[in-house]
Amino acid sequence: MLEIIELAKQSDLMADGEMWFSPTYGNADVHITDLERFAKLVAEAEREACAKIVEANADACSTDSLAQMYLYSNATAIRARGQA
């Protein structure tokens, strides 16, 4: 959760208790749980995009080669990061 808060601050959001707002947009409040949910969705989408790139590289390797097995394993590991 601390990473979410730090990223929110880096993006110029400001906190008022558990509510966050953008000085640019005035009264547009966002609760910290909304920020956390958004951050999880963004991270999940980025992991999936990375895993697909790794799988595409695996598909380009010789079938059942060591490189292909490692790449598929890496794609699985990337997706598993979201489960921890």
Kindly describe this structure:
This protein is mostly helical and 84 residues long. The protein has helices at 2-10, 32-59, 66-80; strands spanning 14-16, 19-21, 29-31. The chain has one domain (2-83). It is built from three helices and three strands. Helix 2 packs antiparallel against helix 3 (66-80). 62% of the residues lie in helices and 11% in strands. A three-stranded antiparallel β-sheet has the order 1-2-3. The chain is elongated.
Properties at a glance:
84 residues; mainly alpha; 3-stranded antiparallel β-sheet; 3 helices; 3 strands; 11% strand; elongated
Quick gist of this model?
The protein is mainly alpha-helical.
Q: Number of helical segments? A: 3
How many discrete structural domains? 1
Mean pLDDT: 87
Largest sheet: 3 strands, antiparallel
Q: Can you list the strand order of the major beta sheet?
A: 1-2-3
